[in-house]
């Protein structure tokens, strides 16, 4: 029981153990609920079930080997995490990357934001009983994963991009798939919206379910779609533009009540804004190199490693982790699927970070979950959890 | 609301001895304070200067520093209106890692402070539930401190001396 919980006299409460594994929680979350009939009167969350000590691991790894760790934070949108990490290191070493690489990154980041929001929105629909939309819309997520596969070779934990740019140009197949996506996505998006958005059952179920006011959301340091659903238009892409986001024209959808419906709608509208950004990025794609001239960090082409001495030296230095970085403390944040994902990096000049702290949006806003479900029904608690889109990997790091 | 360029001067005149230094680290202004006064500073910044958003807080361990500055605690605040971001820091010795909690100012600090306690052993006075959060309760050390190696200390089959580790 939490400290502020006062037990009423002559009343019997049931203790219900929700989790650690429960099909409705979509991840490993334990909540020990104190129930008065169907009403939750108190909840104690336990976290840490998939804690993998990433912050400690990162202190022993060279900079380029930390990217795979970041994959496993929010695994629904790994590319954003990867890019955030690359940009943090680029900020530390003071490297400006070419516009073309930045635009390529924007395309990848917005695609993965769409994939992330597809998961969250369709799962909200599933939890309210609409499985059709989930199966239908997941075709688009599959297509996005095929694009990632064409670009970098893997689908979920992508390890995409390199410090200093991208690892290679988008192959022809990726462009073709991207074109297919650009043609098909609006149709899928509209159809899913027609199926769910104004559905009477869905609206009755989600409106005024698990609301949080803007003041409380800010006190709990919410960020991303969950904060915007409460009516605060804070978006890192606008507040501190990175990777040329200032070049694009897009809106920030906001909600009002901060309930499940608003969180759903903010994500739903954001998908179309992301689509608009991708459209602009494709149309305005600059020519140029896909990576910065950064021999100390960017692996040379294999051909050169065999034939040129400098390339061999740099290859060796990078692989053995012999490159020096400047000393300093740097914080960089990106707008990940769930909000402001920040990297706080202390470098002492060595081959690996002295200290790396991840500001994980899920870890921070999951604290408010207890407050959001108190006095509400158990079934609303399930829905609130899926609408917050808490990803276990990011929660526990 | 104060312009960020003179915020440092203002904090210096307001908090006098508690203010230790001001530096600029990339796009952040960093202010170092005495650890016992940092709560007052955060309260002031939130109520008077509009820094209403706690971005993050975390600890760090510097075993090579002077013993009186071995551990550091970092707070990052964000003023969403002017989009100003600042970092506050406090250093402390190993045997005095007690800080005042800021949970009553920012609810979000609750778990973040528990995380700092879990991994570094900072103690936050007045925290509603000063327990471990990610590691198991039985654990009897604070694993992110530098004296604990990543791998099991009992192992002798791995020799990393050739790889600079």
The largest pleated sheet of chain B is described as: 5 strands, mixed
- Strand coverage percent of chain A: 5-15%
Count of extended strands of chain B: 7
Task: Give the helix tally of chain A.
Answer: 17
Task: Determine and state the CATH class of chain A.
Answer: Mainly Alpha
CATH topology call of chain A: Cytochrome-c3 Hydrogenase, chain B
Structural class of the secondary elements of chain A?
Answer: mainly alpha
Topology-level CATH name of chain B: Beta Polymerase, domain 2
Task: Return the string of H and E elements of chain B.
Answer: HEEHEEEEHE
Q: Low-confidence runs of chain B (pLDDT<50, min 5 residues)?
A: none
Number of domains of chain B: 1
Give the distance, in angstroms, between the N- and C-terminal Cα atoms of chain A. 25 Å
Specify the structural class of chain B. Answer: alpha/beta
CATH class of chain B: Alpha Beta
Largest sheet, spatial ordering of strands of chain A = 1-2-3
Low-pLDDT residue intervals, each spanning 5 or more residues of chain A: none
Taking all Cα atoms into account, the compactness measure Rg of chain A is: 22 Å
Oligomer: heterodimer
> What pair of chains forms the biggest interface?
A-B, 46 and 38 residues
Features:
heterodimer, A: 397 residues, mainly alpha, Cytochrome-c3 Hydrogenase, chain B, 3-stranded antiparallel sheet, 6 strands, globular, B: Beta Polymerase, domain 2, 5-stranded mixed sheet, two-stranded parallel ribbon, 3 helices, 21% helix
